[in-house]
């Protein structure tokens, strides 16, 4: 998970992030993204082709997922979750990855300001077949998307600094090297630091309704996805 501040109003930042046509500009691992079906003005199914070349292990994956955007109080929330639909098999030659529950964006006014936005990015992604330590490295690179978005939207501002882990930030403040008054442009939150072992990534286990667990919600058609998500959000 990463967090950063963009010195622009929430509405402007949220419109940019939600616009799928912009995503290849700020997601450097994205090869292609295709909307498979629009379910409403704020909900759609999409297929993503993903390629990582800057890590120890190079790999390509695809994912089919459901995405929804909404406003909750003064926040803008955008969530994504992998779905398994028989009519959309993996791209030939690629392994199917999973976007896990809890993935998405939360945008809110920073420190009560209507002109500055606090952006939180939760990247819960299981590329399959890779050790946890590699997955964590990929996710740290993915969180750099916040920096890319800031630089694209506000090019006149100073470039975003390199991300620092929360551990380093705390140490710097203790030594008097950090400024508590400066905006935290990009900040890593080490929620998975204790899980950076050599084993396979531990995916979120979602109940399939029959006593078993799996990591992908399975449906027969896009309409059932829409009905399930909206019925769940009302319970």
UniProtKB/TrEMBL annotation:
Segments forming domain START: 1-139
Record-level GO cellular component terms: cytoplasm
Domain of life according to the entry: Eukaryota
Xref: InterPro entries: START-like_dom_sf (IPR023393), START_lipid-bd_dom (IPR002913), START_lipid_transfer (IPR051213)
Biased composition (Basic residues): 167-177
Polar residues composition-biased segments: 207-216
Region: Disordered, residue numbers: 156-217
CDD domains to which the protein is assigned, alphabetical: START (cd00177)
One GO MF term attached to the UniProt entry: lipid binding
Name by which UniProt lists this protein: START domain-containing protein 10
Species, as recorded: Geodia barretti (Barrett's horny sponge)
